[in-house]
Every structure is written in C-alpha cells, then in structure tokens.
C-alpha cells in the first residue's frame, strides 16, 4: 500500500455533509452515463456529421473527487513534444516550447519541438514528475550548445501550495488547516520556468531563439490577445515589462497569461519580445511549430540574400568590404513579425537570448481569481506565484523523494544514489508520459469497409514519448502496475478510461489508440486501421486485480480479508454492479462532483462499478473471437506469415510459417486463464462467493493445457502449429523455446506443487539453460536457428516486461524452493545491472536490451514497461 501521509496528496478528508449522498446512486449514475453513451455505438464513414451535442458525450466524466479533477485538469499531456501542456478537454488549451540557434546559417533547421530519438544531439527527460502537481525536466541540446531546465508548478489552491498532513486533521483548527478548501474543476493557476545555461564555456556565447506558444484547439469562436496591442507593433514589446495575454476557453473560462524574462547578458538590438498571432483552422493549431520554422527560415534566407547582394555590389564598386559580408555586417537574426490577427487562436512569444536566462510563464484562471479586472491585479498575482516558486518546487521535490523512498524502499535495499536516480527517472518519465488524446480513428469491422469513428477521448500513459506517443492496450496494463503503487487515483483514472473506450455492443477494445491527425503523423498508414477481431494481451486485468488486492488483501485458500466484508458494503456493491438501476436524480450533474473527497473504500467501490461490467464484456469478447477450432483452445486473429502483432510479440516464431486455423497459441491460452482467474477473484472479493462457471472454466483450462499444449519432444509446453500439410516436414508442436514457453509459469496456469518435475524443468532447462544470459532472459533461445534473424524484435532481445513477470512468478515460489530463490536473486541482479550500466552511458532507458552484450537498443527514452525496473528494484510484485 502507498504511504500517503507525508506526500502532498492534496486530497482532503470528507466532511459529514459531503458523504451524505448515497454512493450506490453515485456509482450507478456514472455507470449509466458511460453505458448510455458508448463512444462507438454510432459508426459513420466520416466524422463530418458529428454535432456539438454529440461531442459532449466524449468529454471527460467526473471520475473521483472534484479536487482530483481540479488538480488533473492541466498537465504535461503532450508527450509527443519535448515540453508542452494541455487541458483534459475535447476543446483544449495547448502550450508548447521551441528553440533554435539564432546566429548560424543552419540554426533554424535544428529547431527543437517534437520528442524524437536523436539523443546524440538532444537529450531530455523528467528528473522529477509526480503526475499531478509539479514536474522538473532537463534538456541537453549538444548541437545547439545549450541546456534548458523546465519546471512546472500547479497552484491548485489560491492560498496554500503544500497541504497539511491529513492524518493530523484533528489537531488543526482552521478550515484551511483541515484541508476543507473550496475548489472548482477549472485547473487553477500554474507557473512554468524555463532556465537556459551554456553546455560549454565559450568566448562567444551562442545566441538562441526561444519561443513559447499558446493555442486554442477545436474551438472556432475564441481568440487570444496581447494587452495593449492591436494588429501590429513594429518593434515588438519591451522586455522590462511583462507581456499580458488574455483569452477565453469554453472549458476553462477566462484566463490571463503573464510572461517575463530575466537575462544577465542581453543581445544588443534584440532586447524586446517578439510575437505572432494567427487565426488557424481550429483543428490545425498543433502545427504552429511548422509555421514558425518556415516563417523564420524564409526570413533568414531573404536577409542573407539581401546582405550578400549588397556585399557584391560594394565589391563591384571597388569598396573595401573585406573577404566576407560578415566581416562588416552582423549576422541576421530571424524574428517573429510582431503581428496579431484580431481573432487569433494561436499566439507565439519569442525572446532572443544568451545564457544564462529565465523565461517565466504564469497562467491565471479567472475562475480562481474572480476579482481580476486590471493588468495591475494580474501582475500582483503573477508576482506572488513567482516569489514563492523556488521555495515550493524545493518542497515538492523533497516530498517526492520522501514518498519515493517510503514506497519503494531503495535505500533500505542498499542501492546507491545513481541507481536510485535511475529509478526515479523511470517513474517520473512514465507519469510524465501520460497524455490526453481526442480525435477520430479508423476501424474495420469484419472484412467490411474501413470506417471513421467519431471523436472520443483517452487518458493514458504511453510507452515512449519519442516513438510511441499514444496509447497501447497491453502496454498500459504493465504501466498500471507501477503507476498504482505511486498514485492509485491516477491508475484508476487511466484504467477506467481504457474500459470506457470499449465497443459497448461487442466488448472489443482497439489495441492501439491513434486518435486524430496529430497522432496519425507518427504512425505509418498501413498500421492506422484497427480491426475488431484483433486482440492484445489483457494485462489491464492484472492491473485491476493488483489494485483490489492492495486494498482488500489477497485471496488465499479460498478465503479473503477485506475492508468491504461488512454486510452493508457487500450489498452496496452487489446491489447494482451491472448498472441496471437508474437513480432518480439521473440528470443532476452535480451529484457526484460536489463531493470534494471520498474514502478509499468508496473510491474502490465506485471504480469497480465503472470497470467491472466492461471487464466482463471484454472477457466474453476474448472467449468468443479468439476461440480455436477445438473448444477451450485459443488462437490469435490477425496473424500473417511473419507476424502476430495482436499477441504483442510481433515476429516471435510460431512454428508454422503459414497461419492455420488449427493453430493453438500457448500465450493466449495462458492469458485467458489469467483473465478467468482475475474475474473469479474479483467476484469472490466483492460478493464473498465463488462464480461456479468461472471456477469450472479454470479447472478445465488447467486440465486441458497438458492435453492441448504439452510438447513431448521438449517435455514442456508449446504452441500447436497444426498438422503438416503435403511435403512439410515440420513438427506439429512449435520447437521454439523462448518467452512463449514461459507463459504457463508466468501466469500460474499449471499447479506446480502437484507437478514438481515440471517446476524443476522450467527452472533448470527453460530459464537457466535456454534463455539465460548475464543481462536477463532473452526472448528466444540463443540455440534457436531463428535467434537474431530478420528484424529481430522478439527473436532474442531482452524485454523488461517479461523479465518482470518472470521475477513475479519466481518471487511467489522462492520461499519454498532454494533453487527458485537462487534463480530469482541472480536474475534480479542481472536485470538491474543491465539497465544501470546502460544508464551510466546514455542516461536513459531503452525499449529492449541486447542479449549478447546488454546494450540498450530500440526506441528511447522508453519508460513505458521498462520503467518496471523501479518495481524490480523495490521487489514489489
């Protein structure tokens, strides 16, 4: 369980009145809204017909408490850019940062904005990010010779930044001390500080262009304006005065932005702020970095051509102008045009600077400050936030580190400071990679035409900011295992979002969420369509089970210990878990949002009511769509000769080049067993009784694995590839030993206490002899003829998610087996050393690690499931 007492959870205790509303009706209300407005219930060929009323259905639902929604309204929910913020809304406010070298010919071509894998030239990552209140990132741009540090602080309450210890509430006297604050769900204020310093000490400091922008997406009738500016201001805005931007958003309301700069070494003739405001198509505002790059490039080319033409004319006249035009003429610096459209929905602010410098941006919500009328008041509020900024960042950083140690206990396990830094980086970049996505998507139903699904939203972490900045179904299950240990509220929020995007009529969840045009720019066209028969490993079920077991306690020997074991609690869940009742106050939208705080028990009940019916529907979808040709066998759909993308293991060999309907896939069989076991455990935890249908299915699956998947040639379990056809000489069972071989052990399908021979075989032969390397377990045996061949994605490299599952399985048995304890200890040590050795070289975490030398490879920074190293170090399974 997470220790919350010394970390700024900002979650207040409930007052007696705030819990007066029946939680039964609250959760039923939420569930009804979700089930009544399924996002995929209406399929259209294009999204042109979607109306404003329809779009409202896809807005974020109230999830837990009003205060939680308030603190999570704003965030770094744009993982696809190096630094940017966004509101959780279909009509969001976006902010972003871009910079480039301003004093070189090719500087603009190296403009930074998007997250990418060019770590030889620019390296970035969150040093500290708690997912909710503050964030600190370091960016080292080796090519542009600058380091930028970005710091974000949310001022979620007007008067209090750091909350009191909620456990000492009884000793507090005032409402503020007791945590009984008034809050709305507009997100409040925030401050961003961007600090620049030189990477190298140079005699001539490089001149940089730094741009910060704000845009209003998907809103046609809104605008941004700079106070005191109409149309244009040729010389820009003097930098010794703040820039004040005013705007309005449908979701946030009215707001102001206060921008200031501090410089110790200003650039002559470029002391001012420069700006550019433009009216763009509301759905295209995210492309502003492309516009700025093109605009500045054209201006630079024009200036250079003009200077060179003048130089040539002077030479022809015999004037002594030197050997180069730059001997007598300063190099031109491209600046924004200092113009703003009357109805601009994008506004860019530029500062030309030398290091060191600070750029401060303070966002003020007028909902939080209803008395704001004048620029003077805006300045006063902004200066107050800036005055306390460093102090509060320092406090939150200390709180983060305290909570981190209380949660993962790495100091107690004798890890050194750099190893702990790697673990904090892993966690910070996982929660810092959470994004909010909204847009249409392409789905294919059966073999029919590809359809454009109307826009919907998803709140999710992503595997990799630079290469996979979007949601992936099986990745998110692994993400949830770490996020819930850090912040259960965020984890429940994300899991609920995933089950909410399920097709309510079938139970299908698209495995890859590519929502909107911006997301599609990162995905090759041939992978953009999601097919309604293609599954993905259902790791989210593990995430739900772990959340419940943390709260209720694990089930052992048919019994359970639970804080929901009283008659009242049982009836509350049992009453309407399937969402069949409709409360009388159905249309009273404030019924749940006025609850500023709810207990952990009530939050868990509400969470169950939202996800359990969809889990059941999704489970049934797997059983029906992934069934094999024989009852109680299973086969991944969407397989091709070289790939089984739906399995998540892509190019892992299946024993048969040509897909066959007779195939039986061992990993899918094991996942189905896990899903069945999870549904049974949840049912038993909540209802205090077994589901006999699920119990019987579990028994059948345990019995049939020997019948359908045991390979006598290797005395272990394999995929069944089907009978050879014609002149084929291949065996019926797949001969390959690799990660798929581990799944009956990883997901506890076989009762190894009753089969000690099999237990010894998986430890000694499969793990120690066939898959073992000094760096972790390889995805395919090194003796396999297909090891390391072709694209070599799952044909040898070491993946942290499967190694984590292996350690999890070993951890369960190591108290009763000395050999198991030995294998566990060595494997955990090898994995930790592999990641830390690479971390010392590159200061980042990779998608996979080479089985021959342990080097990181593939996408990076990959802090999706590779961030499970934090749980491995903390021995939390």
TrEMBL record:
Endpoints of the signal sequence: none
The Glycosyl hydrolase family 63 C-terminal domain, residue ranges: 387-875
Glycosyl hydrolase family 63 N-terminal domain: residues covered: 72-159, 184-315
Keyword Glycoprotein: yes
Localization of this protein: Endoplasmic reticulum membrane
GO molecular function: Glc3Man9GlcNAc2 oligosaccharide glucosidase activity
Record bears the keyword Transmembrane: yes
Main location: endoplasmic reticulum
A cellular component annotation (GO) from this entry: endoplasmic reticulum membrane
Keywords from the named record: Endoplasmic reticulum, Glycoprotein, Glycosidase, Hydrolase, Membrane, Signal-anchor, Transmembrane, Transmembrane helix
EC number in record: 3.2.1.106
Pfam families membership: Glyco_hydro_63 (PF03200), Glyco_hydro_63N (PF16923)
GO biological process assignments: oligosaccharide metabolic process; protein N-linked glycosylation
Membrane topology, from the record: Single-pass type II membrane protein
Domain of life: Eukaryota
UniProt catalytic activity: N(4)-(alpha-D-Glc-(1->2)-alpha-D-Glc-(1->3)-alpha-D-Glc-(1->3)-alpha-D-Man-(1->2)-alpha-D-Man-(1->2)-alpha-D-Man-(1->3)-[alpha-D-Man-(1->2)-alpha-D-Man-(1->3)-[alpha-D-Man-(1->2)-alpha-D-Man-(1->6)]-alpha-D-Man-(1->6)]-beta-D-Man-(1->4)-beta-D-GlcNAc-(1->4)-beta-D-GlcNAc)-L-asparaginyl-[protein] + H2O = N(4)-(alpha-D-Glc-(1->3)-alpha-D-Glc-(1->3)-alpha-D-Man-(1->2)-alpha-D-Man-(1->2)-alpha-D-Man-(1->3)-[alpha-D-Man-(1->2)-alpha-D-Man-(1->3)-[alpha-D-Man-(1->2)-alpha-D-Man-(1->6)]-alpha-D-Man-(1->6)]-beta-D-Man-(1->4)-beta-D-GlcNAc-(1->4)-beta-D-GlcNAc)-L-asparaginyl-[protein] + beta-D-glucose
EC top class named in words: hydrolase
Family to which this protein belongs: Belongs to the glycosyl hydrolase 63 family.
Role this protein plays: Cleaves the distal alpha 1,2-linked glucose residue from the Glc(3)Man(9)GlcNAc(2) oligosaccharide precursor.
PANTHER family recorded: MANNOSYL-OLIGOSACCHARIDE GLUCOSIDASE
Protein name: Mannosyl-oligosaccharide glucosidase
Organism: Naegleria fowleri
Lineage of source species: Eukaryota, Discoba, Heterolobosea, Tetramitia, Eutetramitia
């Amino acid at each position: 369980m997470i220790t919350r007492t010394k970390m700024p959870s900002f979650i207040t205790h409930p007052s007696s009145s705030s819990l007066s509303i029946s939680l039964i009706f609250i959760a039923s209300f939420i569930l009804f809204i979700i089930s009544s407005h399924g996002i995929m219930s209406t399929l259209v060929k294009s999204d042109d017909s979607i109306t404003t009323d329809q779009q409202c259905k896809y807005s974020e639902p109230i999830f837990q408490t009003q205060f939680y929604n308030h603190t999570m309204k704003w965030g770094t929910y744009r993982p696809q850019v190096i630094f940017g913020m966004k509101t959780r809304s279909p009509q969001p406010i976006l902010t972003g940062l871009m910079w480039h070298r301003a004093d070189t010919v090719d500087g603009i071509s190296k403009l930074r904005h998007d997250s990418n894998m060019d770590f030889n030239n620019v390296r970035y990552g969150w040093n500290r990010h708690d997912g909710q209140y503050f964030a600190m990132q370091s960016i080292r741009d080796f090519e542009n010779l600058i380091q930028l540090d970005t710091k974000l602080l949310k001022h979620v309450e007007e008067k209090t930044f750091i909350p009191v210890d909620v456990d000492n509430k009884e000793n507090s006297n005032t409402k503020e001390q007791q945590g009984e604050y008034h809050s709305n769900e507009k997100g409040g204020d925030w401050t961003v500080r961007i600090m620049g310093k030189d990477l190298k000490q140079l005699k001539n400091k490089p001149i940089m262009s730094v741009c910060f922008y704000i845009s209003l997406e998907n809103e046609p009738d809104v605008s941004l304006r700079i106070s005191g500016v109409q149309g244009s201001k040729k010389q820009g805005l003097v930098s010794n005065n703040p820039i004040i931007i005013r705007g309005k958003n449908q979701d946030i309301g009215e707001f102001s932005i206060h921008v200031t700069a501090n410089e110790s070494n200003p650039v002559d003739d470029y002391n001012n702020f420069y700006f550019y405001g433009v009216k763009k198509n509301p759905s295209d505002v995210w492309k502003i970095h492309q516009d700025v790059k093109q605009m500045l490039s054209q201006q630079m080319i024009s200036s250079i051509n003009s200077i060179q033409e003048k130089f040539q004319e002077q030479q022809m006249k015999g004037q002594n102008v030197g050997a180069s035009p730059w001997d007598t003429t300063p190099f031109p610096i491209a600046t924004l045009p200092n113009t703003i459209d009357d109805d601009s929905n994008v506004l860019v602010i530029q500062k030309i600077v030398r290091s060191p410098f600070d750029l401060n941006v303070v966002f003020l919500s007028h909902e939080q400050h209803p008395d704001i009328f004048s620029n003077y008041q805006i300045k006063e509020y902004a200066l107050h936030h800036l005055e306390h900024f460093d102090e509060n960042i320092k406090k939150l950083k200390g709180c983060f580190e305290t909570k981190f140690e209380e949660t993962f206990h790495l100091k107690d396990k004798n890890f050194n400071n750099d190893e702990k830094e790697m673990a904090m980086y892993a966690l910070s970049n996982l929660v810092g990679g959470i994004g909010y996505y909204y847009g249409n998507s392409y789905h294919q139903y059966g073999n029919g035409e590809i359809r454009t699904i109307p826009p919907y939203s998803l709140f999710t972490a992503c595997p990799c900011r630079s290469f996979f900045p979007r949601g992936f179904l099986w990745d998110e299950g692994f993400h949830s295992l770490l996020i819930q240990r850090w912040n259960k509220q965020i984890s429940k929020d994300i899991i609920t979002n995933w089950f909410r995007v399920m097709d309510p009529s079938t139970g299908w969840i698209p495995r890859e969420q590519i929502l909107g045009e911006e997301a599609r720019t990162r995905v090759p066209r041939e992978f953009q369509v999601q097919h309604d028969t293609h599954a993905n490993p259902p790791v989210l079920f593990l995430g739900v089970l772990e959340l419940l077991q943390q709260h209720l306690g694990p089930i052992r020997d048919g019994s359970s210990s639970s804080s929901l074991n009283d008659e009242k609690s049982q009836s509350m869940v049992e009453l309407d878990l399937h969402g069949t009742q409709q409360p009388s106050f159905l249309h009273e939208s404030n019924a749940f949002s006025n609850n500023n705080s709810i207990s952990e028990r009530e939050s868990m009940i509400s969470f169950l009511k939202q996800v359990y019916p969809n889990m059941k529907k999704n489970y049934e979808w797997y059983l029906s769509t992934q069934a094999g040709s024989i009852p109680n066998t299973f086969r991944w759909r969407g397989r091709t000769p070289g790939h089984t993308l739906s399995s998540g293991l892509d190019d892992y060999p299946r024993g048969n080049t040509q897909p066959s309907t007779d195939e039986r896939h061992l990993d899918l069989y094991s996942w189905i067993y896990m899903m069945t076991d999870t549904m049974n455990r949840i049912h038993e935890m909540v209802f205090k009784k077994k589901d006999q249908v699920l119990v019987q299915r579990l028994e059948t699956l345990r019995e049939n694995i020997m019948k359908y998947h045991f390979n006598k040639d290797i005395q272990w379990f394999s995929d069944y590839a089907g009978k050879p056809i014609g002149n084929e000489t291949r065996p019926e069972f797949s001969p390959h030993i690799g990660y798929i071989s581990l799944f009956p052990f990883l997901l506890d399908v076989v009762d190894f206490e009753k089969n000690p021979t099999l237990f010894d075989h998986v430890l000694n032969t499969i793990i120690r002899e066939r898959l073992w390397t000094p760096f972790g377990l390889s995805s395919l045996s090194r003796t396999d003829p297909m090891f390391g061949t072709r694209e070599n994605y799952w044909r040898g490299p070491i993946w942290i998610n499967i190694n984590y599952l292996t350690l999890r399985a070993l951890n369960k048995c190591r108290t009763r087996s000395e050999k198991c304890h030995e294998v566990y200890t060595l494997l955990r040590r090898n994995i930790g050393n592999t990641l830390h050795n690479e971390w010392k070289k590159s200061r980042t975490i990779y998608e996979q690690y080479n089985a021959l030398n342990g080097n990181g490879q593939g996408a990076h920074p990959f802090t999706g499931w590779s961030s499970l190293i934090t749980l491995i170090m903390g021995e939390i399974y």
